[in-house]
Amino acid sequence: MSTACFSEWRKLPVSLSELCINTTLRCGQSFRWQKLPDDDEWRCVLRGRIISLKQDPTHLYYRYYSPPSTAPLPTPPASTSPSRAASKSANDDSESQSETASDDTLALIKHYFNLSSELTRLYSEWSSLDPNFKKKAPQFTGIRILRQDAWEALVSFICSSNNNISRISQMVEKLCINYGPLIGTIGGRAYHDFPSPQALTGKDVESRLRGLGFGYRAKYIYNTAVMVANEREEGWLDTLRNPESPAFGMEPAHGGEMRPEGREGYRVAHEQLLALQGVGPKVADCVCLMGLGWGEAVPVDTHVWQIAQRDYKFGRGAHKTLNKATYDAVGNHFRKLWGKEAGWAHSVLFTADLKTFSERLTTSKKVKVDVDVKKEEDGEEDVEIKTTVTTAVASKRKIKEEEDIDEGEAKKGKDKVVVQAAETTHTRRASKRLRKQ
DNA sequence: CGTAGACCTCAAAA
DNA sequence: ATTTTGAGGTCTA
To answer: Which pLDDT band holds residue A412 (cuts at 50, 70, 90)?
Structure first.
């Protein structure tokens, strides 16, 4: 019954190397997407609208949910930037309204996934500039930086400090349920949008968040909400955006000249964010990259610091420890190496280092994988990894939400074998990093 | 100015 | 089964 309110699935031609939602939505950028247990459907509330996504090797499929009671076109409930709430003229034709919502949903998805930039071309540029990237990237294609709401990104990454992705997701969920507007209920599950800054300025917010398990971050969130809602102009966060990557519905403009430290607008945004409670350099860079569209922002967390030491010769001499100077040096190094979208490239290597995904790098020598070397037209040797579906699901073992449905790597040249959704049992202890290279 | 400790919680390791 | 560790940092002394 609940599906009666969903639109039909629409499709958009996208290859897995241009976008892999199974990786992009799980690599710690956004903490709100939910994968439905049954099929490979992902669901989230975006700008007041419940969106569902799924993907096959050639297309991204999307549909949106219209709450039965209210008007078909959901009114964006002022999640963050209530200013331009898309003042649609009141029309009575419901069919044209759903058409409008459908077009709008497509525009929303293109905006959210930054689909205007060619990821494949960026990957080959980064590969030509950096042997280490070239080595790691083939197993992690289709990883994009999302264009998230800036306020949501800010709060999410305040939650991320000294924390793990699983709990960050739980905390963000609690924020939405307790303080965000209810958008709809599907199959008994309530879908809320992310709360506005003013929704988190209540006197009891800190204590209540503590009660919900936020720990010391409760105060940061409350203080930051007060600062943004009461001590900044309306729409202040969006004024810090990269003009090339504007908020939904706005026209792009020039973003400034690139330098090793990043463009001027990025430096300004970073500095401004540091004034907020619970926002240090790393969180500020996360917000700049994923919430404000500054592609050169490189958040240096423990993972990236380890990568910098292991693969880029940091950790000695002047940059022995990760202090402020080293933090900047690491970012500058990657900006000089990868260029204006260094943060995008960083995200690929970061994901490769996540425990959830790192199996892909070592699994080739472990089990259940056919590796065959073939010549590509450009004369380079390329290792193709086919993950076979040796799932052995037989027993009663219930794989609880830890299953790892991998996309088959997009094949070119040869016929489109494309192992779709290869299932592996994913013995959790899978594989440690064996070699220090 | 740059550097140790404390800070909440929880699930995975030991 | 119970304790310890560590997880995408930041603030403060």
So the answer is: very low
Q: How many residues does chain A have?
A: 437
Question: Would you say the C-beta of A418 is within 7 Å of strand C?
Answer: no
From A35, A54, A136, A282, the catalytic residue: A282
Q: Is A391 (CB) below 7 Å from strand C?
A: no
Mean pLDDT of A13-33: 96
CATH number of the domain located at residue range(s) A298-357 in this protein: 1.10.1670.10
**Which CATH fold topology does A149-294 show?**
Endonuclease III; domain 1 (1.10.340)
Compute the distance between CA of residue A118 and CA of residue A115 in angstroms, rounded to an integer: 7
* A45 strand-pairing partners: A50
Is the distance between the Cβ of A281 and the closest atom of strand C smaller than 7 Å? yes
In Å, what is the separation between the CA of A163 and the C1' of C6? Answer: 9
Specify the pLDDT at position A387: 34
pTM: 0.82
Q: Could you confirm whether A282 is annotated as catalytic? A: yes
pLDDT at A1: 53
Domain regions of chain A by residue span: 1-69+105-123, 149-294, 298-357
- The tens digit of pLDDT for each residue in A79-123 reads 444 444 444 444 444 455 667 777 899 999 999 999 999 999 999
Exposure letters A289-319 (e unless 16+ CB within 10 A, then b): bbbbbbbbbbbbbebbbebbbebbebeeeeb
